[in-house]
Design brief:
By secondary structure, the protein is mostly helical. It has a domain of about 80 residues. The protein has seven helices and four strands; from the N terminus they run αααβαββαααβ. A hairpin with a 2-residue loop joins strand 2 and strand 3. About 5% of the residues have low confidence.
Length: about 190
Amino acid sequence: MTAPGQRPPPENDPTSFSDLDRNDVPDAKVSESDTAWALWEEANKPPPDTNFPTTQAPSMPMPLPDGDRRYAPTVPQALLRDTLPSPLKASAQDVTLAQALAEARRNNRVCPQPQAWQKLYEMLPGKRQDGRNWEPAPPMTGTSWGATTSIAKRMCLRDHLEWADRKGCLEAIYAYLKALPESDWYYME
């Protein structure tokens, strides 16, 4: 029987079927006995030619590094306020890499203009040359300025700031960046 507005399927359509077409499916036999359970266990045995162990050894937990705060035992929130260290007082002399990176990205900045960037690069201590390559890489100037994407320039400046942080002169570099006028910065397009 079809719903109103529907056409009945053609008689010889191979995709249509009815409940009468299911006569070749055998009826399920229900058996609630020990024999049925034995048949179930027999059907679920591994094939005789496989040599699977019955159980796998549990995995060993990773050894945790001593003193790493990321793996410290957890503390209930109610007790946490008693265990927190007192906040550090920020001083004008302590500049973090995050602060320097934030200053470099302020107002959608990419990097200093080539002349200002070259001055910053000259301030970096411990530069070394290995063959034709410098560590850290020099800033993009000249023809490489126009051929380099803004993201690559920003990453190069990030390398310079990380170098300054490792070499202990981040405060001087940060002060230099803070003193640069906005006209000496290159911005995202």
